[in-house]
């Protein structure tokens, strides 16, 4: 399998929105965006100078299978960003694709932005996501409950990524 990260387009945003409306995917990831229109608006904001988020699309053997992005980019005060990844092609889950994509994207983030660390949240019950973060070098920082769901916060420092 060949994994590559490519630039996002409006068409990717539309496909992503459609694919992530799946009930099983919705249970695994804390989606905050409630409409395709909102998704397209946020995508357009990522194209502006000084945008606080940045993302790529994940391809496996030239097939679009998911997105990876960072948000809340802060190069001034905390010098950190947050990471999110979703593989929407469920038949490709558990094959190491997300781990490989994450490792590539982490290096991209540290090269592109003046940040010292990357944070990530996942539901405590999402064992694949937790495994992905651990395999990618993230350390578990804390467990907490939000909206009645137990979640875990992970962090990766620039020195841990090398």
UniProtKB/TrEMBL annotation:
Residues 14-159 form the N-acetyltransferase domain. It comes from Vallitalea guaymasensis. One of its GO terms (molecular function) is acyltransferase activity, transferring groups other than amino-acyl groups. This is GNAT family N-acetyltransferase. InterPro entries: Acyl_CoA_acyltransferase, GNAT_dom, N-acetyltransferase. SUPFAM superfamilies: Acyl-CoA N-acyltransferases (Nat). PROSITE patterns: GNAT. Pfam families: Acetyltransf_3 (PF13302).
């Amino acid at each position: 399998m060949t994994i590559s990260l490519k630039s996002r387009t409006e068409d990717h945003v539309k496909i992503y929105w459609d694919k992530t409306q799946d009930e099983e995917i919705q249970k695994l990831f804390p989606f905050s965006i409630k409409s395709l229109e909102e998704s397209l608006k946020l995508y357009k904001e990522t194209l502006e100078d000084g945008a606080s988020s940045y993302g790529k699309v994940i391809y496996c053997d030239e097939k679009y299978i998911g997105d990876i992005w960072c948000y809340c980019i802060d190069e001034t005060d905390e010098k950190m960003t947050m990471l999110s990844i979703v593989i929407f092609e469920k038949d490709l889950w558990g094959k190491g694709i997300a781990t490989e994509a994450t490792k590539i994207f982490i290096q991209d983030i540290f090269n592109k932005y003046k940040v010292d660390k990357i944070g990530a949240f996942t539901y405590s019950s999402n064992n694949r996501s937790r495994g992905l973060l651990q395999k990618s070098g993230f350390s578990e920082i804390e467990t907490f409950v939000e909206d009645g769901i137990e979640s875990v916060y992970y962090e990766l420092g620039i020195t841990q990524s090398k």
